[in-house]
Amino acid sequence: MTESQEKLALVRALLDAHHLDAIVLGRVANFAWLADGAASYVNTAATFGAATLIVTRDSQYLVTNNIEATRFAAEEPVEGLGFKSLVGPWHAANTEADALLAGKAVGSDGGHPGSVDLTAEIAALRTPRTQSEIARFQALGKSCAAAMDTAIRQVRPGLTEMEIAGLLAAAAYSQGALPIVNLIATDERIFRFRHPLPTGKKLERYAMLVLCGRRQGLVASVTRLVHFGPLSDELRRKQQACAEVDAAFISATRPGVTLGEVFAQAQAAYARTGFADEWQLHHQGGPAAYEPREFVAAPNHSHTVLEGEVYAWNPSITGVKSEDTILVAPSGNEVLTAISGWPMLKVEANGQTWERPAILQVD
């Protein structure tokens, strides 16, 4: 059974569970998940793409317009996966698709009028477990790490945040990854904002670069910080504490453990390092797949960690942050976005020594 066939079986199980005749998938993330990473978007920020997939009990269809059909035929593998194309004019309704769904009980991921909303149920299917998805995630992690390393080592005082964002975007594109999140903060803005959109402010001494890179639908996340000149005692203490929290998250994220239990260990690490309330100032991350976070973990979350899932934890303490993307592998967790040669901090968590990223210091 191919990856797409395996996923079609999961979608058809939803047909049975909800007594439906068809399911319509229009979200960019769901399209990529079901169609082996195919890109349905034109606007990279769009939630819903320029094509949809329809799954019935005995067939599956690609629905698009005459503008997009040629690219799908030439560059995307959708028809080769057994999807039949229903192509309509860009300026009018797709009558074939309308006729196919007429009079049927329909579910969707939120974009089809009058349908049963299966958004949450479908999202729950997306955390990667197939070997081909894991291999794609491993390759993407290396690409995002390389992009971050290339960009951050070009950063210099005097560059604006927009110029730094340009360096990060260029490096991501050169690695074949689409930078769907590109956050940059410098100096005092790192202390003020957890989600710093880049501005025209010029870097003086301290910069934070955040990248979420997408390829074939999957998204990997990585954050790194660079400081010009000596680090203050405050930054050293906070980064050490943040590394300890990050190690607590990563070490606890093992098969069979609930996310509530993982979160509790991280909360204890925050308190132990003297920053008990900082977790309340920003979300801490969660499972990653076809969205940067398929959902955000929180205290008492009941989801149980599974082998083959990918997580991006991003603990922060005002002024510092630690973020990598990890794979829950059989023998231990693999950091997919590790950067070779990056300065690391050694910290203890769950009886093991872990290495987490330090602030890159440039004299």
Describe what this molecule looks like in 3D:
There is one protein chain. This protein has 363 residues and is α+β, with helices and mostly antiparallel strands. The protein has 2 domains: 3-123, 3-Layer(aba) Sandwich (Creatine Amidinohydrolase, Chain A, domain 1); 131-362, Creatine Amidinohydrolase, CATH 3.90.230.10. The chain is built from 10 helices and 18 strands. A 6-stranded mixed sheet has the order 4-3-2-1-5-6, with helices on both faces. Strands 7-8-9-18 form a 4-stranded mixed sheet. Helix 6 packs across helix 7 and helix 9 packs antiparallel against helix 10 (259-272). The model has no long low-confidence stretch (mean pLDDT 97).
Strand content: 25-35%
Shape: globular
The low-confidence parts are none
Radius of gyration: 22 Å
Short description:
This protein has 363 residues and is an alpha+beta fold.
Features:
alpha+beta; 6-stranded mixed sheet; 363 residues; 18 strands; single chain; globular; Creatine Amidinohydrolase; 2 domains
Blueprint (SSEs and pairs):
Blueprint: H1 3-18, E1 22-27, H2 28-34, E2 48-56, E3 60-65, H3 66-75, E4 84-88, H4 95-101, E5 106-108, E6 116-117, H5 119-123, H6 131-152, H7 161-174, E7 178-186, H8 188-192, E8 206-215, E9 218-228, H9 233-252, H10 259-272, E10 285-288, E11 310-313, E12 316-317, E13 320-321, E14 324-329, E15 332-335, E16 344-349, E17 352-357, E18 360-362
Parallel strand pairs: 1-5, 3-4, 5-6, 9-18
Antiparallel strand pairs: 1-2, 2-3, 7-8, 8-9, 10-11, 11-14, 12-13, 14-15, 16-17
Helix pairs in contact: 6-7, 9-10
